[in-house]
């Protein structure tokens, strides 16, 4: 465990909010270097997870807070690194009044620190503009995959961001597969409809439209469009939250929906470029993350 001071390792416990499953977190501090107080009498304990609704939301997302149990008496402003069992780390700073061994204090890290990026994605701003679709070249997959099949392109982004089928952050690794199966099933159903309920036929010289087949196709397509806008908006909202990107309008969630509805492919391509380090990893249209096999599984 690394610190901002010349300290080494014992143990303490931290708990976090923000996921549906409680997780236990651990920090490390050298008792000999902090007021010569031993933390051996402090028992590791799992504190309840929580969101702090008194803190203003960031990009429409409730703020995640961490309750840290001090393993020793710590001076004001003392900083140390806390690391979770799933590899997430953040900086814990002792409040101005200091903290006694066994007492807890609340830490409010930024999302990009709690969910560290494994790419070179910039923080506080987008990598480039919405319409810079050819910034990586006219034939780069980041745009063409979003244009040809926006659902699969979004599924790749969701997989490398750890989002599930409904756009919630669960560290899911199978989102692309589920979306691929959904698209495959959608097309199979359309083929069956065309085979047994054709959209039209000729009765002599009269052209007749089959309402049943037409309405079924329309209904399925409408469901797919709604789902596409939903996951693109959810993914864009999470990307903005993770990288602390402010919205350009009064309501960030409304901005996410409008971009997803009226500029779907360009919005997906922009998220592609922002969340992937294409200078280090090549694009792969057929992988679950949209990156070559050696690329990070989750960014």
TrEMBL record:
Ranges where the record places region Disordered: 30-52
Pfam families documented for this protein: PLAC8
Taxonomy, superkingdom: Eukaryota
Keywords of this entry: Membrane, Transmembrane, Transmembrane helix
TM helices/strands, residue ranges: 178-202, 214-233
Keyword hit for Transmembrane: yes
Composition bias type Polar residues, residue spans: 30-47
Protein's recorded name: Uncharacterized protein
Species per Swiss-Prot/TrEMBL record: Corethron hystrix
Organismal lineage: Eukaryota, Sar, Stramenopiles, Ochrophyta, Bacillariophyta
């Amino acid at each position: 465990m690394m610190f901002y001071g010349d300290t080494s390792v014992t143990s303490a416990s931290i708990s976090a909010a923000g996921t549906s499953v409680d997780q236990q977190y651990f920090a490390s501090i050298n008792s000999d270097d902090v007021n010569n107080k031993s933390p051996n009498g402090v028992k590791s304990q799992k504190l309840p997870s929580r969101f702090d609704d008194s803190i203003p939301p960031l990009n429409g997302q409730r703020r995640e807070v961490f309750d840290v149990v001090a393993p020793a008496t710590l001076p004001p402003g003392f900083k140390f690194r806390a690391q979770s069992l799933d590899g997430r780390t953040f900086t814990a700073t002792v409040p101005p009044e200091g903290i006694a061994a066994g007492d807890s204090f609340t830490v409010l890290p930024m999302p990009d620190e709690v969910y560290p990026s494994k790419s070179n994605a910039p923080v506080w701003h987008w990598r480039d503009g919405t319409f810079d679709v050819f910034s990586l070249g006219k034939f780069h997959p980041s745009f063409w995959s979003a244009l040809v099949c926006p659902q699969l392109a979004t599924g790749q982004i969701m997989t490398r961001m750890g989002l599930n089928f409904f756009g919630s952050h669960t560290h899911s690794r199978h989102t692309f597969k589920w979306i691929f199966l959904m698209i495959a099933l959608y097309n199979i159903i359309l083929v069956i409809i065309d085979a047994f309920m054709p959209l039209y036929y000729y009765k002599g010289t009269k052209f007749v439209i089959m309402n049943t087949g037409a309405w079924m196709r329309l209904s399925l397509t409408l469901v797919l469009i709604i789902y596409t806008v939903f996951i693109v908006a959810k993914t864009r909202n999470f990307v903005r939250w993770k990288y602390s990107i402010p919205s350009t309008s009064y309501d960030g969630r409304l901005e996410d929906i409008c971009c997803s509805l009226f500029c779907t492919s360009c919005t997906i391509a922009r998220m592609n470029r922002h969340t992937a380090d294409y200078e280090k990893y090549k694009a792969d249209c057929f992988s679950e993350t949209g990156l070559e096999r050696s690329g990070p599984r989750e960014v």
